[in-house]
Amino acid sequence: MAAARGEFSSRFGFLMAASGSAVGLGNIWGFPTNTASNGGAAFLIAYLVLTFLLAYPALMAELIIGRHAKSNTLTALKYISSGKKSRLLAVALGFAGMITVSFILSFYAIVSGWFVAYFFDPIARLLGMDGVAQWLTTDTVTRNSIFLIGFMILTIYIISAGVKNGIEKWASRLMPSLIIILLLLIVYVMTLAGAMDGLRAYLVPDWSRITEPQLLVDAMGQAFFSLSLGVGTMLVYGSYIRKEENLPLVGSMVALLDVGIAVLAGMLIMPAMYVALANGVEIYDAAGGLIAGPGLIVSVLPSLFSNMGFMGIIVALAFFSLMTIASVTSSISMLEVPVSYTVENHGVERHKAAIVIGSLIAIISLIITFNFDPLFDLVVTYATEVSQPLLGFFFCIFIGWIWSRNDILLEIKQGCPDAESGLFWKIWPFYVKFICPVAILVVYFQ
Ligand code: PFF
C-alpha cells in the first residue's frame, strides 16, 4: 500500500460525509414518488421498518469491515477472509462493487447534469437572457453532455483534494445548507393552495397495499439504494472513521438522517405537486398515476415555478441547488470507491487516479447520453436492481459467515467498550447472518 490514508477529523465530519452519500436523488426524488405510487404512508411504514431491520444491519456490516481493515473495499474484504476461496470471492466482490458503483455514477452524473442546468435557468431569466434559459431547459444531447461533464469535473475536483480537505470539508458545508434549504422550501410550499391535498396523499395510508410484493420490493430497493449499500461506499467511508468512534451509534445516526431527510423531502415534493395541480399543471400521467419519472423534476415542478412570478425564480433556485447539493455529496462517495483502490493498491497519486477514473466514467455517461433510449434504463436497472442487492447479499455473507465473530466484537468494542452487553450485539450478528441474506434473496427473486 502506497499513500498515507486519510481520516475524518471529527464525528460531525463523518456524519456529514456519510449522510451526504446517503442523501441524494434517491431521497428527494425517488422516495416521495415511490411513496406516492405505493399507497402513501403504507409505503413509508414499510420503508422505515425495512431500513431499520435490513438496511441498517447491512450498513453496519460495511462500516465495521471498513474501520477494521482501514483500507479500500477489495483489500478490506480480502483482509477479513481466511481461506483461498473466500479471498477469491473478496476480489470478485471488490471488483463487482467498483464496476457497479461506476455505472451508478455514470447515470447519476447525467441526471445531476439536468438539475445543474435547471439551476442556471432562473439565473438566466433574472438576467433577461431568455434564449439561454430556453437552451438550459431544453433536453438536448449537447446540453446534457456539457452539464454532465461539468458535474463530473466538480466531483473529480473534490475527490482529488482527499478525505479531510475534499470529502469532509465539502460535505460539512453542503449538508447543513441542504437541510436549511429543504426546511425553508417546505415551510413556503405549505402556505400555498393545494399543499394540504398533497400532504394528505403523502401521509394517508392505503393499508390494503402493505403486503403487496411490489410495495415491499420497492421499499427494500429504496432502502438499499438510499443508504448507498452493497457497492463499498460505506465500507470506504467506514475505513476513514477513527478507532475511538462508537460505530453502532454513528451508524444509526446516519440511518436516521437518511430516513429523516427522505420523509422531509416527501413533505416538499408531494405538496408541491398538488400546488402545481391547483395551478393548472398536469400531474397525472396517461395511466392515471402521478408523474414520477424525470417529468416530475424537469416538467411538473418547473411549470409550477414559472407560474409563481418572481417568487418562482427564488424557489427554483433554492430547489435546484438542493438537488445539486444532494447529487454532489453522493457522487463524491461513489468516485471515492475506485479511487481509493487505485491509490492504495497501485500506488497511483490521488489526483491522477481521480482524473483518470472520473474521465472514464464521464465517457460512459456520454455514451449513455448519445444512446439514451436503449441504454439509460438498462444501466439503471442492472446497476441498482440487479447488481446492488446481490452485492449487498454477499456483504452480509462475508460478515456473517466468513469473518470471525470474535474479531467483529473486538472491532466494535473499540470506541464502544460495553458493546457486548448492549442491544446491538444481542441482535445484529444474528440479523446479518440469517435474516438479512434471506430477506434480500426473497425480495430479489420477487
Ligand atoms: N444514496 C444515494 C441516493 O439516495 O441518491 C445514491 C447512492 C450513493 C447509491 C452512493 C450508491 C452509492 F454508492
Describe it.
With 446 residues, this protein is an all-alpha fold. The chain has a single domain, classed as Amino acid/polyamine transporter I. Helix content is 80%, strand content 0%. It is built from 18 helices and no strands. The longest helix has 43 residues, at 84-126. It is globular and about 65 Å long. 52% of the residues are buried.
Q: Can you count the beta strands? A: 0
N to C succession of SSEs: HHHHHHHHHHHHHHHHHH
Give the overall form: globular
Structural class: mainly alpha
CATH class wording: Mainly Alpha
Please indicate the percent range of residues in DSSP E strands (runs of 2 or more). Answer: under 5%
The count of domains is 1
Give the biggest sheet. none
The overall pLDDT average reads 93
Name the CATH architecture.
Answer: Up-down Bundle
The distinct bound ligands, ions and cofactors come out as: 4-fluoro-L-phenylalanine
The DSSP helix count reads 18
Radius of gyration: 21 Å
CATH topology: Amino acid/polyamine transporter I
